[in-house]
Amino acid sequence: MRTFNWGILGTGHIAAKFVEGLRSAAGANVYAVASRDLIKAQEFAAEHGITVAHGSYESLVEDPDVDIVYIATPNNLHYPNTLMCINAGKATLCEKPFALNSDQLEKMVSLARHKNIFLMEALWTRFLPTITKVVNLVGSGEIGDIHMVKADFGFKAAYSPEGRLFNKELGGGALLDIGIYPVFLALLLLGKPRTVKSLATKSPTGTDLTNAITMTHANGGVSVLASSFAVNLETEAIIVGTEGCITLHRMFHMPTRISVTRNGETRDVPVELRGNGYNYEAEEVMNCLRNGRTESNILTLDFSIELMGVLEEITSQF
Fold first, then answer.
1. Is 219's pLDDT higher than 90?
2. Domains and CATH numbers, the chain
3. Which helix (H) or strand (E) element contains residue 16?
């Protein structure tokens, strides 16, 4: 099995979690990390046992020994960082949200396809065994025809006008940061929405603080979704069918517990898990490269484009 050298763009919390996940990903070598501050890169490298530290993103991307770049920079940098990686010929996994709008994303995808370079959104939830199990249960007819998906994600975030969660220029707001998970699940299980209705309360900086979304979908189902930086929500997902329901328990976007309720009885569904969950998306990238694919068949670029379009429609109504 071929081993791939990973380069990490960014030294924040998500970068650290992803590096932890790479330790459990077969064929992955955490080779390099980059920050715009060399000292931060060196400190991150020392803490996580990474061989090379770069003092600029450009330096890492130009490193000939880097096979795959994982972009963990702030949301507003995803677009320029991705273009830089693709132009350098590097396979790229970019943290969600993929971009700030559809125009950016379509340019990213167009460039990757033109240059025949691998590109994927790092929507790690799609690759978790729990989500795979739910998709299989729904497909098998375990709970009949799906009529509703209810999902939310919320926590109390300390208000900081300059922080990435509340700064518009950094792509802040509850929807892009955490609301993307409920919306993703609705699209995955119910398909493209026919109608979208949304509303939100705003933070002092104008970003969405708490939002509520209802959508009707192509298959006739309805999704009821919410996200918030103001309150702690259940952060569960319930898929309701004609014969019962499936619950992805707190926190549904992570490796978690699944239960099925039918005829008034509830049973847990066993799922084997390993690593911290980020390992699964990393393995998908490497499997694609080993098989000569420039796009994932599990999380396609077209799905990411559709997801971004729905997020834009939701925010246009805030």
1. no
2. 4-123 (3.40.50.720), 129-272 (3.30.360.10)
3. helix 13-22
